[in-house]
Amino acid sequence: MELNFSKEEEAFRIEVRTWLVEHLNGDFANVKGKGGAGEQLEHFDERVVWEQFLAKAGWAAIGWPKALGGRDASLMEQVIFAEEYANAGGPGRLAHIGLELAAPTIMVFGTDEQKARFLPKIRDAEEMWCQGFSEPGAGSDLSNIRTKATLVDGQWVIEGQKTWTSHAQHSDWCFLLCRTEEGSKNHKGLSFLLVRMDQAGVDVRPIKQLTGDAEFNEVFFDGAVTAEANVVGGVGNGWKAAMTTLTFERGVSTLAQQANFRNELDEIIELAKGNGKAKDPLIRQRLAEAEMGLRVQRYNALRTLTNADSGTFSREGYITKIFWATWHRELGKLAMDVMGPEAELICQDEDYKMQRLQNLFLFSRSDTIYAGTNQVQRNIIAERALQMPKEPRGA
Amino acid sequence: MNFSFSEEHNLIRETAKGFLAVSSSNTAVREWMETDKGYEDAFWQTLACEMGWAMLAIPEEYDGLGMGYVELAIIMEEMGHRLTGSPLFATICQGAQALIQGGTGRQKAELLPEIAMGTKTATLAFGANGSFGIDDITFEWMPTETGYNLTGKASQVIDGASADIIIVAARHKVSREVKMFIVDQSAVTSTNLKTMDQTRRMASVEMEDISVGKDAILEGGYDEFVKVCNISSIMLAAEQLGVARWCLDASVTYSLDRVQFGRAIGSFQSIKHKCSDMMVLVESGISCVYYAACVIDAGTDELAEAAPTAKATLTSSAMTCAGECIQIHGGIGITWEADAHLYFKRARAGEQLLGSPTWHREQMAVAMGL
Is residue A115 part of a domain? Predict the structure, then answer.
């Protein structure tokens, strides 16, 4: 075991830090620190420009192979980049659904034509993506999907409804899990389609959420079309492709979070020192516990990463999601208790706008719900890691 | 950066597991519970010499194997998993640690080889509260013409009545400067205490104006004392990890075996979710304990944060898992016959030993600048 980063890794860290600090305090100072939890739409256009700038400098997709315009960065280098990005106040990423979910799935299951058509534009932030998985009747029970696609004259015609779709309103493409075999059930007969959003048959309606903002959407497909060739992994193999996507969602993309969590916790600690709450013994206990929880997440991530680097997925990988989600939800509550009565007062010069920590408090309630609720995570842990009996399905 | 177990680590663990599965059966544990010392001399000799666990983390120049704390933590975890009765914790993680961190060259050369061979056992006595802040120290020292005078009483000293050597941490009567002293068992009044957890012996250790020679004082002071306690806190956390892991394994096994309403109770979500929550604690606990053990090996200041994190996290986790283990076992879980109560009591004892989770969180709060 060796906890120190190698000389090469430290050199990489300095290179990343230097570049980020230079540009986030220079031309892009306007997006620094923007677009955090519950504020995903803040300074949107400027952040798109920032994403494209990142791509031009070769920082957008560092984990990708060099042949595809990446840097072949190791997992450890990707972590270093994520940490430095958060430390430098890098704005919330907008291209991440394409970069971290669509692209890896296309790399694994896509045809050469699909790779050539889609990957460069994802990398360069020229096309933004959204994920079309959840439906009103298919949340935790994702395989209960009803949106269907039928082949008519060489193209797929899509009917149905998706929901909880982040970024749908400004996405160019959607990767859509839908039923392509009439009468099929559960995970059979599903396909993973790539669908252009800007067309007559697609209707995006924002869902106003508890913060008052609307970051999620409902997406209605009413005769929307896509080319026959835009199916990833072959017709009927959608479940396998989607499960692979979710592995990415539950794995690598959670790593960048910890550095953001660090910033949030530091903000709460500073607040507690400033308003005297740091002297309250119970608040001290909870702040210390939050600090310990964040450190444990880091230790656990380092262990997962080392094991992933050697190609093994061991038991600790299963706990990542439920651990961070639960921790983050508690952090939101702690933030309110540190703010005290002030926590009730939202921005006074606007209609209904939360302050940063209020957004954290409210929005963190979704952490234990999306990407596998805590209850689903517990089932997964029990059934896959502990080999306990599987849940029976209803008729 | 490489945070995974090496082939050698795995070999040490498998060897320990295999050995303890046979020698530290629940029958053996219950026999040790009835003994005065809480362990058997012959078995301790086997652990110390044949298995090499006493010499494992002692530097090579003092006849040890010079391995690291990750290796020692593996042994502590496996012994916690089996509730093995032995003086290893007090001797190696406390007494020998004090000598390694704070002893003079002569003291180390004289005592560590004997400890490494298992011919001498040791412990550390300092207070009554479990925690190890300067105010928690209950012994006082004064210099005399021939050496030092020690006085005071410590409660709940692990193996305090059986350890050959007692390292005593004491405060100067006037200046409050903390120093550690080597004291022989024969020089103190030690009394075994009856404790709820019977798998580890605790004793009170009392000294009334006893004199020790000039060669009894260790070089190290308060900083070294705290370092020793931080290291032993991490090793205790490793033990508690073993306790938590046993509780998880036993709960899963029992719930798959026990049938009610026509199905194994382990097929109910209420039980599955309890077990999942326990696994979250166990797996995060493994990450936490071995990260902290690496920090000891690295010798950095991060010890001041890694130790309270490990101690507070793991002793709470062990307590939760041991409680859930009883719950999942149902009625049988509260009988004397089932082992669940032994782990529950061990978890509870460990929670207070070397500082409660609350105390360790306060140490972290201070380290955070709160």
Answer: no
Say if A170 falls within a structural domain. Answer: yes
Whole-prediction pTM value? 0.94
How far is the alpha carbon of A246 from chain B, nearest alpha carbon, in Å? 20
Per the CB < 8 Å rule, is B287 touching A316? yes
Asked if the structure places residue A107 within a domain, the reply is: no
CB-CB contact of B113 with B49 (8 Å):
no
Decide if B1 touches A, using CB distance below 8 A: yes
In this structure, the number of other CB atoms found within 10 A of the CB of residue A173 comes to 23
Q: Give yes or no: residues A257 and A375 share one domain.
A: yes
Which residue, of A72, A94, A116, is where some domain finishes?
A94
Q: Decide if B4 and A322 are in contact by the 8 Å CB cutoff.
A: no
Q: By three-state DSSP, how is residue A194 classified?
A: strand
Asked if the Cβ–Cβ distance from B295 to A3 is below 8 Å, we say yes
Given A249, A330, A342, A350, which residue is catalytic?
Answer: A249
Q: Could you tell me if A49 and A86 lie in one domain?
A: yes
Chain B residue with minimum CA distance to A74 = B1
Q: What is the pLDDT along chain B (370 residues), one digit of tens a residue?
A: 788 899 999 999 999 999 999 999 999 999 999 999 999 999 999 999 999 999 999 999 999 999 999 999 999 999 999 999 999 999 999 999 999 999 999 999 999 999 999 999 999 999 988 999 999 999 999 999 999 999 999 999 999 999 999 999 999 999 999 999 999 999 999 999 999 999 999 999 999 999 999 999 999 999 999 999 999 999 999 999 999 999 999 999 999 999 999 999 999 999 999 999 999 999 999 999 999 999 999 999 999 999 999 999 999 999 999 999 999 999 999 999 999 999 999 999 999 999 999 999 999 999 999 9
Compare all CA atoms of chain A with the CA of B254 and give the residue at the minimum distance: A388
The reply to whether A139 and A202 lie within a common domain is: yes
Q: Does B253 contact A at CB distance below 8 Å?
A: no
For residue A269, which residues of chain B lie inside 8 Å, CB to CB?
368-370
Task: Provide the domain limits for residue A277.
Answer: 250-385
With contact defined as beta carbons under 8 Å apart, do B51 and B92 qualify? no
Q: A interface mutation test: which of B268, B275, B287 has the most A CBs within 10 A? A: B287
Interface confidence, given as ipTM, is 0.96
CB-based contact, A78 to chain B, within 8 Å = no
Q: Strands of A260-382 (E only): list them.
A: none
Helix (H) or strand (E) holding A324: helix A320-339
CB A204, CB A172: distance < 8 Å: no
Query: Could you tell me if A185 lies within 8 Å of chain B, comparing CB atoms?
Result: no
Cβ(B77)–Cβ(B197) below 8 Å: no
Distance from CA of B304 to the nearest CA of A (A): 12
A322 → closest Cβ in B280, B288, B305: B280
CA distances from A350 to A208, A313, A343, A345 (A): 17, 48, 16, 12
Q: Which two tokens stand for residue A304?
A: 């997962």
What is the per-residue pLDDT across A147-169, written as a single tens digit (0 to 9) for each? 999 999 999 999 999 999 999 99
CATH number at residue A303: 1.20.140.10
From A206, A237, A268, the end of a domain falls on A237
Domain count, chain A: 3
